[in-house]
Design goal:
- The chain contains 20 helices and 4 strands.
- The protein has helices at residues 3-10, 19-26, 28-41, 47-64, 70-98, 110-129, 151-163, 181-204, 210-213, 219-228, 240-255, 258-264, 279-283, 285-309, 316-330, 342-362, 370-377, 379-397, 404-412, 414-427, and strands at residues 460-463, 466-467, 473-474, 478-481.
- The strands form 2 sheets. The protein has a two-stranded antiparallel sheet with strand order 1-4.
Length: 491
């Protein structure tokens, strides 16, 4: 067996864990942020101390809880952080009362920024960790059905994108449907990135988990579909549209043989295939048909964003409703990431709602971690960079073949290495343009939370940053310029 085949066997054939253990792992983020906010409230730390504090209280616990050390060390750390945050909250209560403002609520919701960044960071860690033996195999993507930590990552990305779409924020009429040049501008870069991912995987002989999306498909293509299809759909921002869409799709899965087709049909059109067969569709049926489920999750995110998040309503009522419905549906239909069936979609929505509701409850104008601000603003390029770096790292280090102690040391150094790199780039007065404003990355305009860019094809708008207090960037001034096109603008 070749090394590539060994790597593919290492990440395939898994049955997952329970939805509650997946939720437990993901709760390490909100708990860490709550602890960080209460510690930071005791006194404004410098930029360098703030980054190191984030690494110790937020990043490291999220890494620890995605390893085989979740029980007992990760759970014990979360319990300690919860207790510490509660004690510090009580100590800071007097100061909070004294500084409570009666001004109108800000346009930007910090808890949404935190949740989106938590999802992205947990995803970054998981796509790196899956190649290491310290990552439990039950957290990897399930082969056919079940609940895996990595299963909910892509779905969470779709749900968070729906929460901050223009429809969710009320910035676009729900009656305005159709396709225009902006959809093309958003889609073409995603298609190009998807093609780049295929080429990189082939060139570096990275493992190919065919049952994940298919032979040629990947999540960048799925995001491209999500940028094009929703504008054609009527009734966006209502609960009826995602329910009807996933209901029709589940009917085809259960009664029209689509589930069996996805799981067992041949990849090529030849012997064993019946009826009409399109080679590309047969090879990538999981990715293509899975777009229906992911679009349903995206539309559900729009409904939650429009009716609850941006109306500043409590999320607990809809969260409890989603978990009750999921519990009922899960009794008769197991979640399938491979087909993105109704149970999987409802699980992903309920999972994200409970995290969002918890962060909404805990966040009371607390400090947003600096790196989370950056991850939220530059989510899509970071997602791309994380994917490419993971491929390169996996090929160079061959983590699955490292001895356990070396692999663990390499993996756990990541959060603090990231802190050092971020501090170094800040000391160099590093500048990074907003992804929803920069033309060469305007593919991310459709899911960014800051509605400040106009995303033209020939110009972009980004903050003229200046050094503020504590070494932080002050984005109070804005200007229009025509920047150099391409990655050089990031240097």
């Amino acid at each position: 067996m070749s090394y590539k085949e060994q790597k593919e066997a290492f990440v395939t054939g898994h049955e997952g864990t329970t939805p509650f253990e997946v939720l437990l792992v993901c709760l390490s983020g909100p708990v860490g942020v709550a602890c960080f906010q209460q510690v930071a409230a005791r006194g404004a730390p410098s930029f360098r101390k703030s980054i190191l504090l984030e690494a110790a209280l937020v990043w490291f616990p999220m890494v620890l809880c995605q390893t085989k050390f979740l029980h007992p060390y990760g759970v014990a750390l979360m319990a300690f952080q919860t207790t510490a945050a509660a004690i510090l909250k009580r100590m800071n209560k007097t100061n909070e009362t004294a500084t409570t403002s009666t001004d109108a609520p800000p346009k930007k919701l910090d808890y949404v920024t935190i949740c989106r960044s938590l999802i992205l960071y947990l995803t970054f860690v998981a796509i790196l960790a899956v190649d290491f033996r310290v990552f439990p195999r039950r957290f990897a993507k399930t082969e056919v059905a079940g609940y895996g930590l990595m299963d909910v990552g892509a779905a969470s990305f779709c749900a968070s994108a729906g929460l901050v779409s223009r429809v969710a924020r009320g910035g676009e009429s729900r009656a305005r449907n159709g396709w225009n040049g902006k959809q093309l501008a958003h889609t073409l870069p995603l298609v190009a990135l998807g093609a780049l991912r295929i080429v990189v995987n082939k060139e570096l002989e990275y493992q190919e988990h065919v049952s994940e999306y298919g032979v040629h498909w990947n999540f960048f293509f799925t995001m491209g579909v999500m940028a094009v299809v929703p504008p054609f759909l009527p009734g966006r921002g209502t609960w009826a549209l995602p329910v009807a869409l996933v209901g029709l799709y589940q009917t085809s899965l259960s009664f029209w043989g689509v589930q069996e087709y996805i799981e067992s049909a041949p990849r090529t059109c030849g012997d064993g295939s019946s009826g009409i067969c399109v080679p590309f569709f047969a090879a990538n049926r999981e990715g293509i048909l899975g777009c229906i489920g992911y679009i349903s999750i995206y539309l559900a995110g729009e409904y939650v964003g429009l009716r609850f998040v941006w109306q500043r309503k409590s999320l607990w009522s809809i969260t409890i409703t989603a978990w009750v419905l999921f519990g009922i549906l899960a009794q008769c239909l197991t979640a399938s990431r491979r087909s993105t069936n109704a149970t999987f979609c409802l699980w992903a929505i309920a999972h994200n709602l409970v995290i969002l509701a918890i962060v909404q409850t805990l966040d009371r104008c607390g400090k947003v971690p600096i790196v989370f601000e950056m991850v939220n603003k530059h989510g899509s390029p970071m997602f791309l960079i994380a994917n490419l770096l993971v491929v390169r790292l996996a090929v160079r280090l061959e983590p699955s073949s490292l001895c356990e102690s070396t692999g663990n040391l390499t993996f756990f150094c990541a959060p603090f290495a990231g802190a050092g790199e971020f501090d170094y780039t800040n000391s160099r007065d590093w500048r990074l343009a907003s992804i929803d404003d920069c033309v060469w990355l305007h593919m991310s305009c459709w899911n960014d939370s800051d509605d400040v860019g106009h995303c033209d094809l020939y110009s972009c708008r980004w903050p003229a940053r200046q050094r503020g207090e504590n070494g932080l960037n002050d984005q109070s001034r804005w200007r229009h310029e025509t920047p150099p096109i391409g990655p050089k603008h990031l240097r």
